[in-house]
Amino acid sequence: MDPVTCRGEHPREDGQMPEGIGSDPRRRTSPARWRVLGHPDGILVYQARCIVENHGWSAPAAETTYKVVLGRAGVYRRRVNGRTAFADATSVLLLRPGDEMAVSHPLGCGDSYTCLEVDAEVLARRPDARRWFGGTGWAGSSDGALDLAHRMLAADLRRGLDHFEMAERLHRFLGRLLGFVSPDRESPDVDLDRAVGRRAATLAAHRQLADRAREVLAAGDFSIGLEEVARAVGASPHHLSRVFQRVTGTSLTAWRNQLRVRAVLDTLAESDGPPLRVVASEYGFADQAHLTRVVRAQVGHPPAHLRHLLTA
């Protein structure tokens, strides 16, 4: 993906990625700028941040490994096997060998993510192996608990684990993730597709409207109001709210709070981050108490405790 430079937040000293695993088109651009968190027993875990110089689409790249991509911050568009979708900090993507993906960054702000690439031989030895093989990948959104588990795992890997514990923790996380993205778990889009009397064009228009609203919310201005979001996407607040709930399964307010809390978690993970009252103001909360209530409701812990957990 030539227009985009991807770099890890803390490159390894030798500036190299392990060879022989993975096909991420972004990694081919500048491997010295990636942060590898661990590589035990056929599982590669790394974090990256993409800085955008061109908003256009990358060339499609075929996947060669089983891969899980978990959003951390920023936004991008992805085209997987010909289907285009919007992705933000809530996004989870499961790719299988043969899936073809291209990406673009319409807002120009790039994105950061954690990726787990797993050898087929490793998956074949798992008791849930049959659920990993066959078909194409899966895309959806994580809830607060899964997102926090992902971030805490990354923080522990940055602190340092031996390969035995690292492998065990990663296998546990893969099991939890597979339970969350099970093929038996239908997304709101599936229910929407089955609605009697709905035309395909209407369904596509609703998804596009919801994606445009997600782009506006993900732009980072957490002081924006519902009227402004609706105006930006060319819909009435009532229509936008109803369609967004139907497509995503959650309200605009709840989605905005998910994005805010993920941004807060990124800030809390900084060892020299600002005081909580400043964090509350920066992300549009009424005060520190409001920040605490919303974060606790999303992930089950107050910000002060999360700062301790996530600071590497």
Automatic annotation (TrEMBL):
The keyword Transcription regulation applies. The keyword Nuclease does not apply. This is Helix-turn-helix domain-containing protein. Residues 207-309 form the HTH araC/xylS-type domain. GO terms for molecular function: DNA-binding transcription factor activity; sequence-specific DNA binding. Residues 1-29 are annotated as: Disordered. PANTHER family: HTH-TYPE TRANSCRIPTIONAL ACTIVATOR RHAS-RELATED, TRANSCRIPTIONAL REGULATORY PROTEIN. Keywords: DNA-binding, Transcription, Transcription regulation. InterPro entries: AraC_XylS_family_regulators, Homeodomain-like_sf, HTH_AraC, HTH_AraC-typ_CS.
